[in-house]
Amino acid sequence: MRNKELQAFASYAKASKTKQINTQGKAVIYTRVSTKEQAENNASLETQKKYCQAYAKNKEIAVVAYFGGTYESAKSDERKHFQKMLTYVKRHKKEISYIIVYSYDRFSRTGANGAYISKQLMKEGIVVLSVTQNVDATTASGSFQQNLYYMFSQFDNELRRDKSVTGMQEKLLEGYWIGAVPFGYTNLNPGKGKVQNIVVNEQGKLLRYAFKWRATENLSYRAIAERLEKKGLVISYKKLSDYFRNPFYCGLVVSAHIPDKVIEGKHEAMVSKELFLKINESLRNKDKTQSYNKDEENLPLKQFVKASSCGGYYTGYLVKKKGLYYYKNNRRGSKENRSARIMHQKFEQLLTQYQLADQKYIAPLKEVMSYTFLEQHKEQLQEASAIEKQVKALDQKIELLEERFVFNEITREQYIKFKGRSEKERMEKQEYLQANSLDVSNLEKAINLAVDYSSNLSVLWSSGDLEAKKRLQNMLFPEGILFDHKNDRYRTIRVNSIFSAIPTITGNMSGNENGTPSKKMKVSRLVPGMGLEPTRN
Q1: Any domain includes 167
Q2: In-domain check, residue 519
Q3: DSSP assignment of 240-308, as one string?
Q4: Which tens digit of pLDDT belongs to each residue from 354-389?
Q5: Which of the given ranges, 19-23, 29-33, 61-65, 108-112, has the highest pLDDT on average?
Q6: Total domains, the chain
Q7: For the chain, which end, N or C, has fewer CB atoms within 10 Å of the first or last residue's CB respectively?
Protein backbone atom coordinates (compact mmCIF):
# COMPACT_ATOMS: atom_id res chain seq x y z
CA MET A 1 0.00 0.00 0.00
CA ARG A 2 2.80 2.34 0.86
CA ASN A 3 4.33 2.14 -2.65
CA LYS A 4 0.95 2.71 -4.26
CA GLU A 5 0.38 5.75 -2.05
CA LEU A 6 3.77 7.21 -2.98
CA GLN A 7 3.11 6.68 -6.68
CA ALA A 8 0.34 9.25 -6.44
CA PHE A 9 3.01 11.85 -5.67
CA ALA A 10 5.35 10.84 -8.52
CA SER A 11 4.59 13.99 -10.47
CA TYR A 12 6.10 16.08 -7.66
CA ALA A 13 9.53 14.42 -7.88
CA LYS A 14 12.36 16.65 -9.07
CA ALA A 15 13.64 15.86 -12.54
CA SER A 16 17.31 15.08 -13.01
CA LYS A 17 19.38 17.93 -14.46
CA THR A 18 21.52 15.38 -16.27
CA LYS A 19 19.91 13.31 -19.00
CA GLN A 20 20.24 9.57 -18.74
CA ILE A 21 22.61 7.97 -21.23
CA ASN A 22 20.75 6.10 -23.93
CA THR A 23 22.76 2.90 -24.09
CA GLN A 24 21.10 2.10 -27.40
CA GLY A 25 22.16 5.46 -28.81
CA LYS A 26 24.47 5.99 -31.76
CA ALA A 27 27.89 7.56 -32.03
CA VAL A 28 30.07 9.89 -34.09
CA ILE A 29 33.81 9.41 -34.53
CA TYR A 30 36.21 12.36 -34.27
CA THR A 31 39.83 12.08 -35.45
CA ARG A 32 42.54 14.71 -35.50
CA VAL A 33 46.25 15.30 -35.97
CA SER A 34 48.01 18.50 -34.98
CA THR A 35 50.07 19.34 -38.05
CA LYS A 36 49.82 19.12 -41.80
CA GLU A 37 53.04 17.11 -41.90
CA GLN A 38 51.49 14.40 -39.68
CA ALA A 39 48.42 14.30 -41.88
CA GLU A 40 50.46 13.85 -45.06
CA ASN A 41 53.41 11.75 -43.92
CA ASN A 42 51.95 9.02 -41.73
CA ALA A 43 48.79 7.04 -41.22
CA SER A 44 47.82 8.40 -37.83
CA LEU A 45 44.42 9.57 -39.06
CA GLU A 46 43.67 6.21 -40.65
CA THR A 47 44.94 4.47 -37.53
CA GLN A 48 42.66 6.53 -35.30
CA LYS A 49 39.65 5.89 -37.52
CA LYS A 50 40.41 2.16 -37.73
CA TYR A 51 40.69 1.75 -33.96
CA CYS A 52 37.58 3.88 -33.32
CA GLN A 53 35.54 1.78 -35.76
CA ALA A 54 36.77 -1.46 -34.13
CA TYR A 55 35.91 -0.09 -30.68
CA ALA A 56 32.38 0.85 -31.80
CA LYS A 57 31.87 -2.57 -33.36
CA ASN A 58 33.07 -4.33 -30.22
CA LYS A 59 30.70 -2.24 -28.06
CA GLU A 60 27.87 -2.74 -30.60
CA ILE A 61 27.51 1.02 -31.11
CA ALA A 62 26.29 2.22 -34.51
CA VAL A 63 28.42 5.01 -36.03
CA VAL A 64 26.38 7.58 -37.99
CA ALA A 65 28.96 10.26 -38.83
CA TYR A 66 32.69 11.01 -39.01
CA PHE A 67 34.30 14.35 -38.18
CA GLY A 68 37.81 15.74 -38.20
CA GLY A 69 39.95 13.57 -40.44
CA THR A 70 42.27 16.53 -40.85
CA TYR A 71 44.94 18.55 -39.09
CA GLU A 72 43.99 21.20 -36.53
CA SER A 73 45.61 22.10 -33.25
CA ALA A 74 43.79 21.23 -30.02
CA LYS A 75 45.33 24.16 -28.14
CA SER A 76 42.01 25.93 -28.66
CA ASP A 77 38.51 24.49 -28.70
CA GLU A 78 37.49 26.93 -31.45
CA ARG A 79 38.62 24.38 -34.06
CA LYS A 80 36.43 24.39 -37.17
CA HIS A 81 35.84 20.63 -37.47
CA PHE A 82 35.61 20.21 -33.71
CA GLN A 83 32.89 22.88 -33.50
CA LYS A 84 31.09 21.31 -36.45
CA MET A 85 31.09 17.97 -34.63
CA LEU A 86 29.74 19.56 -31.42
CA THR A 87 27.00 21.34 -33.38
CA TYR A 88 26.01 18.09 -35.06
CA VAL A 89 25.74 16.03 -31.85
CA LYS A 90 23.77 18.77 -30.09
CA ARG A 91 21.31 18.96 -32.98
CA HIS A 92 20.93 15.18 -32.96
CA LYS A 93 21.17 14.66 -29.21
CA LYS A 94 18.06 12.47 -29.18
CA GLU A 95 19.88 9.80 -31.18
CA ILE A 96 23.58 10.48 -30.43
CA SER A 97 24.92 9.13 -27.14
CA TYR A 98 28.67 8.90 -27.76
CA ILE A 99 31.62 10.72 -29.25
CA ILE A 100 34.38 8.20 -29.91
CA VAL A 101 37.99 9.40 -30.03
CA TYR A 102 41.31 7.54 -30.21
CA SER A 103 42.48 9.25 -26.99
CA TYR A 104 41.31 12.17 -24.89
CA ASP A 105 44.11 14.42 -26.18
CA ARG A 106 42.55 14.00 -29.66
CA PHE A 107 39.37 15.54 -28.22
CA SER A 108 40.99 18.43 -26.33
CA ARG A 109 44.31 19.62 -24.94
CA THR A 110 42.87 22.67 -23.15
CA GLY A 111 42.65 21.18 -19.66
CA ALA A 112 39.78 22.68 -17.69
CA ASN A 113 37.94 23.81 -20.82
CA GLY A 114 38.02 20.29 -22.29
CA ALA A 115 36.65 18.96 -18.99
CA TYR A 116 33.91 21.63 -19.06
CA ILE A 117 32.85 20.70 -22.60
CA SER A 118 32.68 17.01 -21.64
CA LYS A 119 30.56 17.89 -18.60
CA GLN A 120 28.13 19.96 -20.69
CA LEU A 121 27.83 17.11 -23.19
CA MET A 122 27.17 14.71 -20.32
CA LYS A 123 24.24 16.88 -19.24
CA GLU A 124 22.79 16.34 -22.71
CA GLY A 125 23.27 12.59 -22.38
CA ILE A 126 26.39 12.44 -24.58
CA VAL A 127 29.58 10.73 -23.36
CA VAL A 128 33.10 11.13 -24.76
CA LEU A 129 34.68 7.67 -25.08
CA SER A 130 38.41 7.07 -25.53
CA VAL A 131 39.55 3.93 -27.36
CA THR A 132 42.95 3.78 -25.66
CA GLN A 133 41.93 4.97 -22.18
CA ASN A 134 39.41 2.71 -20.47
CA VAL A 135 37.39 5.19 -18.44
CA ASP A 136 33.73 5.14 -17.44
CA ALA A 137 33.05 8.87 -17.49
CA THR A 138 29.49 8.37 -16.21
CA THR A 139 30.87 7.61 -12.70
CA ALA A 140 32.44 10.13 -10.32
CA SER A 141 35.83 8.39 -10.32
CA GLY A 142 35.74 7.92 -14.10
CA SER A 143 34.86 11.57 -14.66
CA PHE A 144 37.75 12.60 -12.39
CA GLN A 145 40.13 10.34 -14.31
CA GLN A 146 38.90 11.76 -17.63
CA ASN A 147 39.57 15.28 -16.38
CA LEU A 148 43.08 14.26 -15.36
CA TYR A 149 43.77 13.17 -18.91
CA TYR A 150 42.68 16.62 -20.15
CA MET A 151 44.93 18.30 -17.55
CA PHE A 152 47.94 16.16 -18.48
CA SER A 153 47.36 17.02 -22.16
CA GLN A 154 47.35 20.71 -21.34
CA PHE A 155 50.54 20.33 -19.28
CA ASP A 156 52.18 18.53 -22.20
CA ASN A 157 51.10 21.38 -24.48
CA GLU A 158 52.71 23.93 -22.19
CA LEU A 159 55.99 21.99 -22.09
CA ARG A 160 55.99 21.85 -25.87
CA ARG A 161 55.18 25.54 -26.03
CA ASP A 162 58.17 26.43 -23.85
CA LYS A 163 60.46 24.49 -26.18
CA SER A 164 58.79 26.01 -29.23
CA VAL A 165 59.07 29.57 -27.91
CA THR A 166 62.81 29.13 -27.33
CA GLY A 167 63.23 27.96 -30.92
CA MET A 168 61.16 30.85 -32.25
CA GLN A 169 63.19 33.38 -30.27
CA GLU A 170 66.41 32.04 -31.77
CA LYS A 171 65.00 32.32 -35.31
CA LEU A 172 63.74 35.85 -34.71
CA LEU A 173 67.08 36.97 -33.26
CA GLU A 174 68.75 35.70 -36.43
CA GLY A 175 66.41 37.89 -38.51
CA TYR A 176 64.05 35.17 -39.75
CA TRP A 177 60.27 35.60 -39.67
CA ILE A 178 57.95 33.15 -37.93
CA GLY A 179 54.35 32.48 -38.84
CA ALA A 180 52.41 33.66 -41.86
CA VAL A 181 54.23 36.29 -43.90
CA PRO A 182 52.60 39.74 -43.96
CA PHE A 183 50.41 40.84 -46.86
CA GLY A 184 52.41 41.68 -49.97
CA TYR A 185 55.08 39.04 -49.41
CA THR A 186 55.68 35.45 -50.52
CA ASN A 187 58.10 32.89 -49.10
CA LEU A 188 59.68 31.26 -52.17
CA ASN A 189 61.21 28.51 -50.04
CA PRO A 190 58.47 27.32 -47.64
CA GLY A 191 58.71 24.25 -45.48
CA LYS A 192 59.99 23.21 -42.09
CA GLY A 193 63.78 23.37 -41.79
CA LYS A 194 64.27 25.25 -45.05
CA VAL A 195 66.01 28.63 -45.30
CA GLN A 196 63.42 31.35 -45.89
CA ASN A 197 63.41 33.42 -49.03
CA ILE A 198 60.73 36.05 -48.39
CA VAL A 199 60.29 38.51 -51.28
CA VAL A 200 57.85 41.23 -52.31
CA ASN A 201 55.13 39.76 -54.55
CA GLU A 202 52.97 41.47 -57.19
CA GLN A 203 50.47 42.68 -54.56
CA GLY A 204 53.36 44.08 -52.55
CA LYS A 205 54.66 46.01 -55.53
CA LEU A 206 51.28 47.75 -55.73
CA LEU A 207 51.09 48.20 -51.94
CA ARG A 208 54.44 50.04 -52.18
CA TYR A 209 52.55 52.89 -53.88
CA ALA A 210 50.40 53.28 -50.74
CA PHE A 211 53.48 54.06 -48.64
CA LYS A 212 54.73 56.53 -51.24
CA TRP A 213 51.38 58.35 -51.53
CA ARG A 214 50.99 58.57 -47.77
CA ALA A 215 54.50 59.97 -47.32
CA THR A 216 54.51 62.45 -50.20
CA GLU A 217 50.86 63.46 -50.61
CA ASN A 218 49.43 62.61 -47.16
CA LEU A 219 46.35 61.09 -48.81
CA SER A 220 43.55 59.68 -46.66
CA TYR A 221 43.28 55.91 -46.30
CA ARG A 222 40.12 55.85 -48.40
CA ALA A 223 41.75 57.83 -51.20
CA ILE A 224 44.75 55.49 -51.17
CA ALA A 225 42.51 52.41 -51.30
CA GLU A 226 40.59 53.89 -54.25
CA ARG A 227 43.82 54.58 -56.13
CA LEU A 228 45.09 51.07 -55.43
CA GLU A 229 41.85 49.59 -56.73
CA LYS A 230 42.35 51.42 -60.03
CA LYS A 231 45.77 49.76 -60.26
CA GLY A 232 44.20 46.36 -59.61
CA LEU A 233 44.74 45.89 -55.85
CA VAL A 234 41.52 45.68 -53.82
CA ILE A 235 42.06 46.01 -50.06
CA SER A 236 40.12 47.51 -47.17
CA TYR A 237 41.27 51.02 -46.34
CA LYS A 238 40.99 50.06 -42.65
CA LYS A 239 43.97 47.71 -43.01
CA LEU A 240 46.32 50.42 -44.26
CA SER A 241 47.00 51.75 -40.77
CA ASP A 242 48.34 48.34 -39.70
CA TYR A 243 50.52 48.09 -42.80
CA PHE A 244 51.97 51.58 -42.30
CA ARG A 245 52.88 50.78 -38.68
CA ASN A 246 54.49 47.38 -39.34
CA PRO A 247 58.31 47.71 -39.51
CA PHE A 248 58.48 44.39 -41.40
CA TYR A 249 57.79 46.43 -44.55
CA CYS A 250 61.07 48.35 -44.14
CA GLY A 251 63.08 45.17 -43.57
CA LEU A 252 62.95 44.84 -39.78
CA VAL A 253 61.70 42.10 -37.46
CA VAL A 254 59.87 42.80 -34.19
CA SER A 255 57.86 40.34 -32.11
CA ALA A 256 56.32 39.86 -28.67
CA HIS A 257 58.61 36.82 -28.36
CA ILE A 258 61.65 39.14 -28.35
CA PRO A 259 60.38 42.16 -26.38
CA ASP A 260 62.23 45.48 -26.65
CA LYS A 261 64.30 44.22 -29.60
CA VAL A 262 64.40 45.31 -33.24
CA ILE A 263 66.30 42.95 -35.56
CA GLU A 264 67.50 43.51 -39.11
CA GLY A 265 65.47 41.00 -41.12
CA LYS A 266 66.64 38.52 -43.74
CA HIS A 267 63.68 39.39 -45.97
CA GLU A 268 63.39 41.95 -48.77
CA ALA A 269 62.36 45.45 -47.67
CA MET A 270 59.31 46.86 -49.45
CA VAL A 271 60.12 50.49 -48.58
CA SER A 272 63.09 52.36 -47.19
CA LYS A 273 63.50 52.96 -43.47
CA GLU A 274 63.47 56.72 -44.12
CA LEU A 275 60.10 56.52 -45.87
CA PHE A 276 58.67 54.32 -43.10
CA LEU A 277 59.83 56.73 -40.38
CA LYS A 278 58.44 59.72 -42.28
CA ILE A 279 54.98 58.14 -42.41
CA ASN A 280 55.01 57.09 -38.76
CA GLU A 281 56.25 60.46 -37.57
CA SER A 282 53.21 61.92 -39.32
CA LEU A 283 50.92 59.32 -37.72
CA ARG A 284 52.34 59.99 -34.24
CA ASN A 285 51.79 63.70 -34.60
CA LYS A 286 48.30 63.33 -36.02
CA ASP A 287 46.53 63.43 -32.67
CA LYS A 288 48.93 65.80 -30.95
CA THR A 289 48.04 69.45 -30.55
CA GLN A 290 49.85 71.33 -33.27
CA SER A 291 51.62 74.62 -32.76
CA TYR A 292 50.27 77.48 -34.82
CA ASN A 293 51.36 81.05 -35.32
CA LYS A 294 49.42 83.91 -33.78
CA ASP A 295 47.68 84.85 -37.05
CA GLU A 296 46.23 81.35 -37.43
CA GLU A 297 45.05 81.31 -33.81
CA ASN A 298 43.12 84.53 -34.38
CA LEU A 299 41.60 83.43 -37.71
CA PRO A 300 40.06 79.98 -37.08
CA LEU A 301 37.39 80.48 -39.79
CA LYS A 302 39.99 81.05 -42.53
CA GLN A 303 39.53 78.59 -45.44
CA PHE A 304 36.32 77.36 -43.73
CA VAL A 305 33.88 80.18 -44.54
CA LYS A 306 32.93 80.63 -48.20
CA ALA A 307 31.51 83.73 -49.87
CA SER A 308 27.86 83.23 -50.83
CA SER A 309 28.42 85.57 -53.79
CA CYS A 310 31.00 83.41 -55.57
CA GLY A 311 31.79 80.35 -53.46
CA GLY A 312 35.38 81.41 -52.87
CA TYR A 313 37.03 80.97 -49.47
CA TYR A 314 37.56 83.77 -46.99
CA THR A 315 41.16 84.33 -45.92
CA GLY A 316 42.41 86.75 -43.26
CA TYR A 317 44.90 89.48 -42.50
CA LEU A 318 46.10 91.72 -39.68
CA VAL A 319 45.87 95.52 -39.71
CA LYS A 320 49.04 96.13 -37.71
CA LYS A 321 48.34 99.78 -36.89
CA LYS A 322 45.04 98.87 -35.24
CA GLY A 323 46.12 95.44 -34.07
CA LEU A 324 42.86 94.04 -35.46
CA TYR A 325 42.19 90.98 -37.62
CA TYR A 326 39.89 90.90 -40.64
CA TYR A 327 38.49 88.27 -42.96
CA LYS A 328 38.21 88.95 -46.68
CA ASN A 329 36.87 87.27 -49.78
CA ASN A 330 39.99 86.13 -51.58
CA ARG A 331 38.48 86.62 -55.05
CA ARG A 332 40.39 89.26 -57.04
CA GLY A 333 38.53 92.57 -57.07
CA SER A 334 36.26 91.64 -54.20
CA LYS A 335 35.65 94.22 -51.50
CA GLU A 336 34.04 91.82 -49.05
CA ASN A 337 35.99 92.51 -45.86
CA ARG A 338 34.65 91.98 -42.34
CA SER A 339 36.01 92.31 -38.82
CA ALA A 340 37.12 88.96 -37.38
CA ARG A 341 35.63 89.94 -34.01
CA ILE A 342 32.20 90.50 -35.57
CA MET A 343 32.35 87.33 -37.67
CA HIS A 344 33.30 85.32 -34.58
CA GLN A 345 30.38 86.79 -32.62
CA LYS A 346 27.98 85.92 -35.43
CA PHE A 347 29.42 82.41 -35.65
CA GLU A 348 28.89 81.90 -31.91
CA GLN A 349 25.29 83.11 -32.36
CA LEU A 350 24.87 80.55 -35.14
CA LEU A 351 26.17 77.81 -32.83
CA THR A 352 23.58 78.71 -30.18
CA GLN A 353 20.87 77.59 -32.63
CA TYR A 354 22.22 74.06 -32.23
CA GLN A 355 22.40 74.22 -28.45
CA LEU A 356 20.00 72.70 -25.94
CA ALA A 357 18.82 75.39 -23.58
CA ASP A 358 16.55 73.11 -21.53
CA GLN A 359 17.06 69.57 -20.16
CA LYS A 360 13.47 68.63 -21.04
CA TYR A 361 14.48 68.47 -24.71
CA ILE A 362 17.16 65.79 -24.24
CA ALA A 363 15.04 62.60 -24.40
CA PRO A 364 12.98 63.55 -27.47
CA LEU A 365 16.07 65.02 -29.12
CA LYS A 366 17.91 61.71 -28.81
CA GLU A 367 14.93 59.94 -30.35
CA VAL A 368 14.76 62.34 -33.30
CA MET A 369 18.55 62.29 -33.81
CA SER A 370 18.51 58.51 -34.03
CA TYR A 371 15.50 58.54 -36.35
CA THR A 372 17.07 61.19 -38.61
CA PHE A 373 20.35 59.33 -38.93
CA LEU A 374 18.68 56.01 -39.69
CA GLU A 375 16.30 57.60 -42.22
CA GLN A 376 19.11 59.38 -44.05
CA HIS A 377 21.09 56.14 -44.30
CA LYS A 378 18.15 53.79 -44.80
CA GLU A 379 19.20 52.55 -48.24
CA GLN A 380 22.78 51.91 -47.14
CA LEU A 381 21.61 50.03 -44.04
CA GLN A 382 19.13 47.99 -46.06
CA GLU A 383 21.84 47.09 -48.54
CA ALA A 384 24.16 46.03 -45.71
CA SER A 385 21.38 43.95 -44.14
CA ALA A 386 20.69 42.22 -47.46
CA ILE A 387 24.38 41.42 -47.97
CA GLU A 388 24.66 40.09 -44.40
CA LYS A 389 21.76 37.73 -45.14
CA GLN A 390 23.55 36.62 -48.32
CA VAL A 391 26.70 35.93 -46.28
CA LYS A 392 24.69 33.83 -43.80
CA ALA A 393 23.11 31.94 -46.71
CA LEU A 394 26.58 31.23 -48.09
CA ASP A 395 27.69 30.00 -44.65
CA GLN A 396 24.76 27.58 -44.63
CA LYS A 397 25.56 26.55 -48.18
CA ILE A 398 29.19 25.80 -47.25
CA GLU A 399 28.08 23.88 -44.16
CA LEU A 400 25.64 21.85 -46.26
CA LEU A 401 28.42 21.08 -48.76
CA GLU A 402 30.61 19.85 -45.91
CA GLU A 403 27.85 17.63 -44.54
CA ARG A 404 27.14 16.19 -47.99
CA PHE A 405 30.84 15.49 -48.45
CA VAL A 406 31.05 13.82 -45.02
CA PHE A 407 28.16 11.55 -45.94
CA ASN A 408 29.61 10.79 -49.39
CA GLU A 409 26.74 12.47 -51.25
CA ILE A 410 29.18 14.43 -53.43
CA THR A 411 32.70 13.69 -54.66
CA ARG A 412 35.82 15.41 -53.31
CA GLU A 413 36.24 17.25 -56.63
CA GLN A 414 32.68 18.61 -56.44
CA TYR A 415 33.19 19.58 -52.80
CA ILE A 416 36.42 21.50 -53.51
CA LYS A 417 34.98 23.18 -56.61
CA PHE A 418 31.73 24.44 -55.09
CA LYS A 419 33.19 25.23 -51.67
CA GLY A 420 35.94 27.34 -53.25
CA ARG A 421 33.41 29.22 -55.34
CA SER A 422 31.15 29.88 -52.33
CA GLU A 423 34.03 30.94 -50.07
CA LYS A 424 35.31 33.37 -52.71
CA GLU A 425 31.85 34.93 -53.06
CA ARG A 426 31.52 35.10 -49.27
CA MET A 427 34.92 36.83 -48.92
CA GLU A 428 34.03 39.40 -51.60
CA LYS A 429 30.75 40.25 -49.85
CA GLN A 430 32.45 40.55 -46.46
CA GLU A 431 35.13 42.85 -47.89
CA TYR A 432 32.42 45.00 -49.46
CA LEU A 433 30.59 45.17 -46.13
CA GLN A 434 33.77 46.12 -44.30
CA ALA A 435 34.52 48.92 -46.75
CA ASN A 436 31.00 50.30 -47.29
CA SER A 437 28.67 49.42 -44.43
CA LEU A 438 27.79 51.80 -41.62
CA ASP A 439 28.64 50.92 -38.05
CA VAL A 440 25.47 51.80 -36.11
CA SER A 441 26.66 49.97 -33.00
CA ASN A 442 28.16 53.23 -31.70
CA LEU A 443 25.22 55.41 -32.75
CA GLU A 444 23.91 55.77 -29.19
CA LYS A 445 27.37 56.72 -27.93
CA ALA A 446 27.74 59.29 -30.72
CA ILE A 447 24.33 60.77 -29.96
CA ASN A 448 25.10 61.04 -26.23
CA LEU A 449 28.36 62.79 -27.10
CA ALA A 450 26.51 65.13 -29.48
CA VAL A 451 23.98 65.99 -26.77
CA ASP A 452 26.82 66.82 -24.37
CA TYR A 453 28.40 69.05 -27.01
CA SER A 454 25.09 70.68 -27.88
CA SER A 455 24.65 71.92 -24.32
CA ASN A 456 27.39 74.54 -24.78
CA LEU A 457 28.66 74.58 -28.36
CA SER A 458 29.44 78.29 -28.40
CA VAL A 459 31.47 78.05 -25.17
CA LEU A 460 33.39 75.03 -26.44
CA TRP A 461 34.25 76.90 -29.62
CA SER A 462 35.19 80.23 -28.03
CA SER A 463 37.31 78.65 -25.26
CA GLY A 464 39.03 75.96 -27.37
CA ASP A 465 42.41 76.19 -29.05
CA LEU A 466 42.71 76.38 -32.83
CA GLU A 467 42.66 72.59 -33.30
CA ALA A 468 39.54 72.24 -31.10
CA LYS A 469 37.79 75.06 -32.97
CA LYS A 470 38.50 73.48 -36.35
CA ARG A 471 37.37 70.03 -35.23
CA LEU A 472 34.09 71.43 -33.90
CA GLN A 473 33.53 73.49 -37.07
CA ASN A 474 34.08 70.50 -39.33
CA MET A 475 32.02 68.18 -37.15
CA LEU A 476 28.99 70.49 -37.18
CA PHE A 477 29.31 71.84 -40.73
CA PRO A 478 31.19 69.21 -42.77
CA GLU A 479 31.05 71.26 -45.99
CA GLY A 480 31.84 74.61 -44.40
CA ILE A 481 29.42 77.56 -44.25
CA LEU A 482 28.57 80.56 -46.42
CA PHE A 483 28.84 84.22 -45.43
CA ASP A 484 26.36 86.57 -47.06
CA HIS A 485 28.31 89.84 -46.95
CA LYS A 486 25.47 91.90 -48.35
CA ASN A 487 23.03 90.84 -45.60
CA ASP A 488 25.80 90.36 -43.00
CA ARG A 489 24.81 86.84 -41.96
CA TYR A 490 25.86 83.20 -42.19
CA ARG A 491 24.09 80.57 -44.24
CA THR A 492 24.59 76.86 -43.78
CA ILE A 493 25.30 74.38 -46.58
CA ARG A 494 24.91 71.08 -44.75
CA VAL A 495 24.58 70.38 -41.04
CA ASN A 496 25.69 67.15 -39.37
CA SER A 497 22.52 65.03 -39.23
CA ILE A 498 22.96 64.39 -35.51
CA PHE A 499 22.77 68.14 -34.79
CA SER A 500 20.33 69.17 -37.51
CA ALA A 501 17.34 68.07 -35.42
CA ILE A 502 17.95 70.57 -32.60
CA PRO A 503 16.49 73.77 -34.13
CA THR A 504 13.40 71.86 -35.29
CA ILE A 505 12.71 69.99 -32.06
CA THR A 506 13.31 72.95 -29.75
CA GLY A 507 11.14 75.15 -31.97
CA ASN A 508 8.29 72.66 -32.09
CA MET A 509 8.44 72.04 -28.34
CA SER A 510 8.74 75.63 -27.20
CA GLY A 511 6.00 76.41 -24.73
CA ASN A 512 5.46 72.73 -23.98
CA GLU A 513 6.03 72.61 -20.22
CA ASN A 514 6.54 68.89 -19.70
CA GLY A 515 8.97 68.47 -22.59
CA THR A 516 7.04 65.73 -24.41
CA PRO A 517 6.97 65.72 -28.22
CA SER A 518 3.96 67.49 -29.65
CA LYS A 519 1.86 66.12 -32.49
CA LYS A 520 3.36 68.79 -34.71
CA MET A 521 6.88 67.64 -33.86
CA LYS A 522 6.08 63.98 -34.49
CA VAL A 523 4.88 64.89 -37.96
CA SER A 524 7.72 67.28 -38.67
CA ARG A 525 10.37 64.70 -37.89
CA LEU A 526 9.18 62.68 -40.88
CA VAL A 527 10.15 65.49 -43.23
CA PRO A 528 13.38 64.55 -45.10
CA GLY A 529 16.32 66.95 -45.04
CA MET A 530 15.26 68.32 -41.67
CA GLY A 531 17.43 71.08 -40.29
CA LEU A 532 19.63 71.74 -43.32
CA GLU A 533 18.96 75.44 -42.83
CA PRO A 534 18.68 76.60 -39.19
CA THR A 535 15.53 78.37 -38.10
CA ARG A 536 15.74 82.15 -38.10
CA ASN A 537 14.09 84.70 -35.86
Answers
A1: no
A2: yes
A3: HHHHHT-GGGGTEE--TTSTT--EE-SSPPSS-HHHHHHHHHHHHHHTSPPP--HHHHT-TTTTTEEET
A4: 887 677 777 777 776 677 677 767 777 888 888 889
A5: 61-65
A6: 4
A7: C
